[in-house]
Amino acid sequence: MTLAGKILKLGVALALALTAGSSAALAKKKKCKDGETTEVASYKLVKGEHLDYQIPKPLNGKGGDPKRGLKWMTHRRQGNCIACHEVKKILALAKPNDLNSLKKYGFHGKIGPSLDGVASRYTEGELRLLVVDPKKAFPDTIMPAFHKAQGFTRVHKDCVGHVILSADRVEDVVAYLKTLK
Ligand code: HEC
Fold first, then answer.
1. d(CA 158, CA 146)
2. Burial class (CB in 10 A: 0-12, 13-18, 19+), 121
3. I need a surface site. Which of 15, 71, 102, 159 has the fewest CB within 10 A?
4. Taking a C-beta distance cutoff of 8 angstroms, is the pair 87, 115 a contact?
């Protein structure tokens, strides 16, 4: 075999090995491995001011951090709130010349209402209820329940029994929503 032939053969073998390696890694990586937990906090529902119900107390007993809340709200496999909601404050973080910031903070969906000013429309407890289980406020909504692990059908097998956002992460999101006055 000529040297060129050998190099070509080696290249093909290497490409095949790499493809096999990465697809094996992909097959091994399970869904619901971004910290989704099977723990569901117990909480008390009380009457709301603008909605039928609210959850007045933090699920984790201490509240959350708005900076981390922004992270979950823009995380494609976690909250991904911006897939359905426009938030001007988050859009403002997307810089036209920076592809990463555009991918992270840009391109909001308009399936749900804009979340601008949402903290002026609802109490903190109502915002918490809306993240935990929005069907308790809007029974026919397509918005997912972010802190619920039972009652679903045909969930991906890796995700059965998992919530999307843990109690701490729900509190982070609520803390961020509270900044949207
Ligand atoms: C699949 C789309 C979808 C996703 C994802 C989604 N929502 Fe919603 N959300 C909606 C829709 C639709 C409504 C309006 C309620 C209705 O009538 O169905 C709504 C309503 C709301 C409201 C009430 C807004 C108002 O002004 O009345 C809040 C607050 C809210 N969502 C927060 C969130 C947060 C926080 C996240 C991410 C953790 C999120 N949503 C993810 C679709 C979504």
1. 17
2. middle
3. 15
4. yes
Q: Which of 77, 84, 169 most suits a substitution to test ligand 1, by most atoms within 8 Å of the C-beta?
A: 84
Q: Are 111 and 144 a contacting pair, CB within 8 Å? A: no
Ligand 1 neighbourhood includes 146 CB (under 6 angstroms)? yes
Residue whose C-alpha is closest to residue 107's, from 139, 78, 83 = 83
C-beta separation of 90 from 66 below 8 A = no
CB atoms within 10 A of CB 66: 17
Q: Identify the residue with better confidence: 65 or 5.
A: 65
What is the b/e burial string over 128-155, where b = at least 16 CB atoms within 10 angstroms of the residue's CB? bbbbbbbebbeeeeebbbbbebeeeeee
Nearby residues of 105 by Cβ (< 8 Å), 6 or more positions away: 74, 82, 90, 91, 93, 94
* Confidence at residue 27, expressed as pLDDT on a 0 to 100 scale: 52
What does each C-alpha distance from 33 to 28, 83, 92, 111, 132 come to in angstroms? 11, 20, 30, 27, 20
The full length of the chain comes to 181
Pick the atom of ligand 1 nearest to 164's CA: 38
